[in-house]
Every structure is written in C-alpha cells, then in structure tokens.
Specification:
Layout lengths: L1 H20 L1 H5 L7 H34 L10 H24 L1 H9 L2
Helix pairs in contact: 1-3, 3-4, 3-5
Amino acid sequence: METYRSNAARRWALTLLYTAISPLPLASFAGEGTGSMGKAFIKSYTGVCLEGAVIVLACLIYSAFLSGSAPAADGSLPPVTMAWEYIGQLIFNMLILTGLVKGSDRVVREMFSL
C-alpha cells in the first residue's frame, strides 16, 4: 500500500509543479529558437496528466471488478480454508492494482514516445 501512496503523491506533486511553472515554458512559444522547448513541455505535461487519468481508470476498473465478483465460498470447506482463499484472492487483486498504478507511466511513455 505504501508504494501506491508514494506514486500518487509523486504524480500529485508533479502535476502541481508543472502547473505552477507552466507560464515560463509556454512563453517560449514566442521565439523561433525556443519554440521546441514549449512543445516538449506540452508533451511532457500531457503525459503527466494522462498518468493520473490512467491511475483513475485503473482504480475504477479495480472497484468494478471487486464489486462484480463475490468471493467463492464452498460450504463443504472448513472456515479457515475459506478465509485463506479469500485473503489470497484479495492479495492477488491488490497486486494487480499496484501493477497497474506502477505501469501507468510506462503506458503513457509508450503512447507519447517520451
């Protein structure tokens, strides 16, 4: 869970930082020699914003996946076995969500060729 929080905090801080300094790179569009710097900033800023969108989409899919499937409970099994099966399924689902969050920057970088 700590990995998820640190990634979310990093993306939040990056978005705030990019938004705070955006007037400077956007002003570079005025000059012929510095126009490429403005284009690179827009590309990078869009990538950071899309990373957040990919994370939100992953969380929505994850919550829909969890609410749609009830844990398989076999009445013939002992309660301890059912509890361990539930814990295993829960850990597996959390690992999938963590993988999606960690992979969001890779997905965006491949989309934008950054």
